[in-house]
Design brief:
Number of strands: 12
Largest sheet: 7 strands, mixed
InterPro entries: Mal/L-sulf/L-lact_DH-like_ah, Mal/L-sulf/L-lact_DH-like_NADP, Mal/L-sulfo/L-lacto_DH-like_sf, Malate/L-lactate_DH-like
GO molecular function: oxidoreductase activity
Family: Belongs to the LDH2/MDH2 oxidoreductase family.
CATH superfamily of the largest domain: Malate/L-lactate/L-sulpholactate dehydrogenase, NADPH binding domain
Pfam families: Ldh_2 (PF02615)
Strand order of the largest sheet: 2-3-4-11-5-6-7
Radius of gyration: 20 Å
Distance between the termini: 15 Å
Number of domains: 3
CATH architecture of the largest domain: 2-Layer Sandwich
Protein name: Ldh family oxidoreductase
Amino acid sequence: MEAERILRIGEEELIGLSTKIFEACGMNEEDAAALSRSLVYADMRGVKSHGLVRIPSYVEQLEEGTFSPVTKLDVIKETAFSTVLEGNNGLGAVVSYKAVELTKKKARENGIAFTAVRGSNHYGAAGLWSYLLSQDKDLIGFTATNAIPIVAAVGGSGRGIGSNPFSFAIPAGKYANMCLDISVGHMAQGKIWEYKRLGRPLPEGAWMGPDGAVTTDPDKFDINEYIMMPFGGHKGFGLGVIMEMFTSALAGGEFHRMFGGLTKDMPKTSHCFMAMRLDAFTDAADYRKDVDDYIDYLHALPVKEGFQAPKYPGEIEAACESDSVRNGVPVPYKVLEDMKRTAEGKCLDVSGYGKYLD
């Protein structure tokens, strides 16, 4: 099927096209490029649900006024170790790049730092922000965000809490950094687009429809009508509640209660970012060596016949990123087609991308 064709396109070429699209929506070049880089990063790491597939949705929300195209950050409260920021309804990715830099700076100065953000919007793949916090291998990174309610309570028949993703990134030495990036639901809402594109049924037991009945049909309802089941039952639900407390409660933001749909009137999103400087606790080189040794231990664990050696958190994504750097970012044909159509709707010249779609 044509929808399953995978194209290989350079990182900067994709960022360039995406940036033009967002500039046409009223964003300045710097912010449009930042948002675009976050989406391309997700595709490079194999997190397709948070990649370029989201461009039409972001454009629609910018046009409808759900997001402000201008991102302005205000400092609400600050100490040497902590900051509370107001995002003023700006783009979550733009807000987060700035919050990450502030958190890194304070952690390097003081050993540990925590930044809480309110008044923001969807910030993309959580793993990007913990990865950026830890990328120089001197800091442990953590981030979390709340989200519009989409996850049912255990035994619930409707939306209860957000998927509230969180991510930890741990510096390694010879290996790529560990990076755990998960939400409290069975799978990201954006993956419904992927299953629709591929014509595949949704995983059993992952989703309900608005009627409370479990469904595997990705075409049966509008994407915003699906209700996600929590992973691990009460464990996933409990983690989601705690992440709400780490984000909106600490930032003085809005709790995301029963609220459906993406509209300009929906509650604004809150995030948090934390960094810990390794040498404030132990010798940094020794720590990274210990992480490497533990990864070697994980790789050597016995497995059943037919199974591969265990992977540490982030190992698969790091391999995807290396492959993307070498061979180009994998982009589904349909995703690039949608990008091109969106760009043409903004009267942009995208004739150069026809070579990929012929």
